[in-house]
Amino acid sequence: MGTVRRSFVLPEPLDKELDAVVELLKENKSTLVTRALAFYLDHLDLAVAKERARRFENGGRKSRNAAEIKESLEL
Q: Is 18 exposed, middle or buried (0-12, 13-18, 19+ CB in 10 A)?
């Protein structure tokens, strides 16, 4: 897997907290921010999945079989 360089701005208190955690864990900022972002995105995925399941259980969407999905994707 490749990497990309990103530049972004952090509020000063968050940057100071990041510095403290980097020092405590003896990791570099890139590694720590990458792990934190991956964790957060996984958390969001789970929240979205739970919300979709809740809507489905409340009748918000009906299930579809494989043939219906295939047809909707024009496969």
A: middle
- Among the listed residues 38, 42, 36, 41, the one whose alpha carbon sits nearest the alpha carbon of residue 18: 36
> For 13-35, what is each residue's pLDDT tens digit?
999 999 999 999 999 999 999 99
User: Two tokens at 74?
Assistant: 């024009």
Residue labelled with tokens 């403290």 = 20
Domain extent listing, the chain? 12-72
Better-predicted residue by pLDDT, 49 or 62: 49
**Which residues, at least 6 apart from 33, have a Cβ–Cβ distance to it below 8 Å?**
18
Roughly how many angstroms between the first and final C-alpha of the chain, as a whole number? 30
- At 70 the three-state DSSP class reads helix
